[in-house]
Amino acid sequence: MSDATAPIRFYFDFSSPYGYFAAEVIDTLAGEYGRRVDWCPMLLGAVFKKNGMQPLVDIPMKGDYSRHDMFRSARYLGLPFSGLPTPFPFASVAAARAVYWLKDRDESAARDLAKAIYRASFVDGLDMSQPEGVLDRAADLGLDRDAVAAGIQDQAVKDRLRDGVEEAIAAGAFGSPFFIVDGEPFWGADRLDQLRRWLQTGGF
Amino acid sequence: MSDATAPIRFYFDFSSPYGYFAAEVIDTLAGEYGRRVDWCPMLLGAVFKKNGMQPLVDIPMKGDYSRHDMFRSARYLGLPFSGLPTPFPFASVAAARAVYWLKDRDESAARDLAKAIYRASFVDGLDMSQPEGVLDRAADLGLDRDAVAAGIQDQAVKDRLRDGVEEAIAAGAFGSPFFIVDGEPFWGADRLDQLRRWLQTGGF
Predict the structure, then answer these.
(1) Which chain A residues are closer than 8 Å to B62 by Cβ?
(2) pTM for the full model?
(3) Which end of chain B, C or N, has fewer beta carbons within 10 A?
(4) Among partner residues B47, B68, B194, which is closest to A72 by beta-carbon distance?
């Protein structure tokens, strides 16, 4: 049965252009059906390592196609996209920790920070692999830069992210974006249409 | 520039449920924009071997998700789907050769045979890995069973399929379904929406 009050779980890796596309639209989509979204950063590297998978852009043939598909998908969705930042894929640990740290204090601000990090990566082409880039985004949002920097280094936050990644894997999230709506999994920005119908109909 | 008279190239493997979904809808979609479809069976095994990839359903986590996603995608698209046949994935050489043989003689009949093989696999759960199953479908369509059987064994047809697979790989087709519209590649049944807009707009 559909629990129309339960939030939509949104797993994403900051080093994921399709995760960025989803991040731009999921709150509005969910809101149309009275749902909130629980933003949960994860680390795809852990999933890939566990399953012997490699990053999309590094896969023969599929990698080249995906680099083209990203631009077309952005145009199709009407979203700004400048391409992949350098380095790519990048370590998104600092970004994920910052969002987890902030989520316990101000969930709305955590979501804004996540969106700002994504846009910095995929619209402005900035390097978000290091704490500096993440802290710049936090400062732009009026957050206390030193407090966020300390949060990224906090052992409790490190543990929180590690647990979050394990939870994501246990929930079946092997890619980004990955959504869970009332127990139903949806992988990919190209499953947002099915996710929408799921919300409309309560399952189909 | 868009050449509105050029056929849409449709690469597919018979051992692909998403290829089946696409096969059910692509002719109608293309027809809405005055296009024909060039049905080109291929063998994903050759691509996987070349690139060190493995079949979708065998990939950890993603395999389990895909088995669920196939059923939901079928419901979303309003298509009959009974699940994966046994064995799966299956060798689709006989099916592909039969379609190539027939394509040179009666392209419309070749398309009908391709659809019948797909439905036998994914609606009726029949084994299409051996010539017998393929010949049964051909006979159902009123084709000469012995002639099709001989066609499957014809060296020229074997060569034609081998060349077709090489051509597909050279064109970048690493999965099924894979479409090329005026040089633009689209991979997956979930890119049919983008393909439609491409036809509508002449590229976006």
Answers:
(1) 51, 53, 174-175, 187
(2) 0.96
(3) N
(4) B194
